[in-house]
Write a structure and sequence with these properties.
This protein is an alpha/beta fold. The chain has 2 domains: 7-98 and 297-314, Rossmann fold, CATH 3.40.50; 103-287, Rossmann fold, CATH 3.40.50. It has 12 helices and 12 strands. The protein has helices at 16-25, 39-46, 62-67, 86-91, 104-120, 122-130, 160-169, 186-192, 199-205, 225-228, 248-257, 296-314; strands spanning 7-10, 27-30, 51-54, 73-76, 95-97, 152-156, 175-179, 194-196, 208-211, 236-239, 262-265, 285-287. Strands 8-7-6-9-10-11-12 form a 7-stranded parallel β-sheet, with helices on both faces. α5 crosses α7 (160-169). The chain binds (2R)-2,3-dihydroxypropanoic acid.
């Protein structure tokens, strides 16, 4: 009797080449329609499958994992895995694959673009022109931003993406400071030209602060009024990591009152946000729809790794990137 094929659930369709690969090997169910896949539907499907391909907005919590009686591998199409209950997965011996490295450059590029945008008020100008409000030309004080050279960038979280931002910033002539859970070895600090400072000093002295820590219970809402109050009035806050690291209510207050000069955000507490969101009403906020890794090349590489992680995990081979559950 032929061996029955394993079953895979994808909460969203991946690239055609990835779907073809998966179809060759497995019986696949792809969710279509409402995004994220409604929890009730996810709960009923997950009980039948050996593998799951999910996205950073899918909440793979205790209840889902309890129901996933046959599940052996979760492969997330993201570098972040804060949406997965790691302890429950570990207890059930479920392997978790993710997609770091391939999206480092794309995310670092976007971070620098957002920083420049906020400091030079590019999107703000674009909004003004499209709103029909560009009336006066080239005044000494019109739409002035700030110089980049000689200013200080504060990198909060000097992992892969934070380091890639530091490399990109060097030619701009900014002083590079950082704060991280673990201080880098001296030779790496030297290579990046980066100085380690305390979290408070990072917020006090930087002209642009960029967030690259992962979202954990320690970093939840860590950028709140206490830290925002420490920032210079002329300083900018950039976030391409996870929205919930910043307390949005406090950030809106800081932007509205002129406590800080601007913010450029690719991620939000609850996504997607609409035009009535408090941040969408701030003149001095640049907003992007969670596009850190969104380039054709990077998203394709993420798909390649996602399916390899899944296939290797199910075949008891070493995954390309697996989350260390210890
Ligand atoms: C990730 O991979 O976690 C990002 O948020 C997606 O761009």
């Amino acid at each position: 009797m032929a061996k029955s094929r394993m079953k895979i659930l994808l909460t969203r369709k991946l690239h055609e080449f990835a779907m073809t690969e998966l179809k060759k090997r497995y019986d696949i169910y792809v969710h279509s329609g409402e995004i994220p896949m409604p929890k009730g539907k996810l709960l009923s499907k997950i009980s039948q499958v050996d593998g799951l391909v999910c996205f950073p907005y899918d909440v793979i919590d205790e209840e889902i994992i309890e129901n996933a009686k046959k599940l052996k591998v979760i492969s997330t199409y993201s570098v972040g895995y804060d949406h997965i209950d790691l302890q429950k997965a570990k207890a059930r011996k479920i392997k978790i694959g993710y997609t770091p490295d391939v999206l480092t450059n794309a995310t670092a590029d976007l971070t620098v673009a957002l920083m420049l945008d906020s400091m030079r008020r590019i999107t703000e100008g674009d909004r003004m022109i499209r709103g029909g409000n560009w009336k006066v030309i080239f005044g000494p004080h019109d739409y002035v931003g700030t110089d980049i050279e000689g200013k200080t960038i504060g990198i909060f979280g000097m992992g892969r993406i934070g380091s890639a931002v530091a490399k990109r910033i060097t030619p701009f002539g900014m002083k590079i400071t950082y704060h991280s859970r673990h201080r880098l070895p001296k030779n790496q600090e030297k290579k990046l030209g980066a100085k380690f400072v305390s979290l408070d000093e990072l917020f006090e002295k930087s002209d642009a602060i960029t967030v690259h820590v992962p979202y954990t219970k320690e970093t939840r809402g860590i950028v709140d009024m206490r830290l925002l109050k420490k920032m210079k009035k002329t300083s900018h806050l950039i976030n391409t990591s996870r929205g919930k690291i910043i307390n949005e209510k406090d950030l809106i207050k800081a932007l509205r009152s002129g406590m800080i000069a601007g913010a450029a955000l690719d991620v939000f507490e609850k996504e997607p946000i609409g035009k009535n969101h408090g941040l969408a009403k701030m003149r001095n906020a640049v907003l992007a729809p969670h596009i850190g890794s969104s380039t054709t090349e990077t998203r394709k590489k993420m798909a390649e790794i996602t399916i390899k992680n899944l296939i290797y995990g199910l075949e008891q081979k070493k995954m390309i990137y697996s989350v260390n559950l210890d």
